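Narrative of activities, Objective 1.

The group set out to show that a structural description can be obtained from nothing but a protein's sequence at a throughput compatible with the screening campaign. Below is one input-output pair from the validation batch, recorded exactly as produced.
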Amino acid sequence: MQPSAVPELAHTHTRPIHWLATATALAGVVALSSVLQPGAATAAQPDAPGAGRAPAHAAPPDPAAVTFPVECGPVKAVVQKKASADLDGDGRPETVAVVHCDSPMGTPPDGVYVLTRDADSGRPRLVATLLDPEDGTTVGDFAVRGGTVTATLLGYSSADVPRCCPDEKSDAKWRWRDGTFVRSTPAGARSV
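Output recorded for this entry:
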């Protein structure tokens, strides 16, 4: 082994006093951090315009509070899918619900309904039927984005097709325009 050309430095060897100083400093930092805590977090900045003032009816309507116009006989209607957004631009969210009968067999047809809150009472109420269960179709993919409701509709070409296995597929899109929901077929619509 070759001897070092540099004299040994005293601070390169750890001694018990070094460990004690490090442990004391670390304990001081932990103790201080437990005493000094930041304020509670908030979603809105206090000086932002409109902070602390939520719209009167900010919560979307709850589909469980509505009776849907679906004839189900001895079984009940169930909400299969739902999504909420401000569809008509009034600043209050609407809820779009995909509803069908809770049938133990087969594939029951779906209805697609739009709910809003009553301006006076604030109770949820049905305002539009986008897809009537009488049409005999079911809803595959379903989304509400940017004020547009989109769905993949699965249907049957004839009464001979088993209700388990739809043989027609189409895309539908609904958008609020001039006081009503207007249905269109997006580009690239297809059938099976």
